[in-house]
UniProtKB/TrEMBL annotation:
Chief location category: cytoplasm
Organism: Halobacillus faecis
Transmembrane segments: none
Keyword Cytoplasm: yes
Keyword hit for Lipoprotein: no
Record's protein name: Beta sliding clamp
Taxonomic path: Bacteria, Bacillati, Bacillota, Bacilli, Bacillales
Length: 174
């Protein structure tokens, strides 16, 4: 789909004809001056709708700005080590623990009080802090909801008031 949008953008004002070629592996569009080639993907794309509609085992509501601050600090501490990895872990007493570890320096741990917790109350996942920060920055509102289904499942972030704004962040292997 991205390639088709690029084709439309690039060739929108082209005068004359376009040549289109499709093989088992490639898709090519060309004019006299420009050529775009793209590899065709084989197989079924994962059904992202299942990720968003499947019931989460754990749902957390927390202050977005506190989360931004703490993930930012833990992410800086992690640096480039293992994809800017931070660990999110649900602690007793309605606290979300955010931690990272850098072998040369040590570790950092920060806690955020939860505003609400529902479900089985288990969350233990490693996430790329940059992806998490970017999702939090563009999520509107003061509070966010985190949905977690279980081990190696993505973390879903939603705005409390706008169900259409959804961020899906895949976990990283620790």
């Amino acid at each position: 789909m991205r390639t088709l949008k690029e084709v439309i953008k690039v060739f929108k004002n082209t005068k004359g004809s376009l040549r289109l070629s499709i093989t088992d592996q490639l898709f090519k569009v060309e004019s006299n001056e420009t050529m775009i080639t793209s590899k065709l993907l084989d197989g079924a794309y994962p059904n992202v709708g299942d990720l968003l509609t499947a019931s989460a085992k754990t749902v957390l509501t927390l202050d977005k700005n506190r989360m931004l601050e703490r993930v930012g600090r833990a992410g800086l501490f992690a640096g480039n080590f293992r994809n800017h990895q931070v660990k999110l872990c649900l602690m007793e007493g309605k606290q979300l623990n955010i931690s990272s570890f850098l072998p040369e320096v040590g570790n950092i741990e920060e806690n955020i009080p939860l505003k609400e917790l529902s479900g089985v109350g288990k969350l233990d996942v490693h996430i790329d802090s940059i992806f998490l920060l970017e999702a939090l920055k563009v999520t509107k509102g003061e509070d966010v909801k985190l949905f977690y289904k279980g081990m190696m499942s993505p973390l879903i972030i939603r705005n409390l008031r706008n169900e259409e704004q959804v961020h899906v962040i895949s976990p990283v292997r620790a």
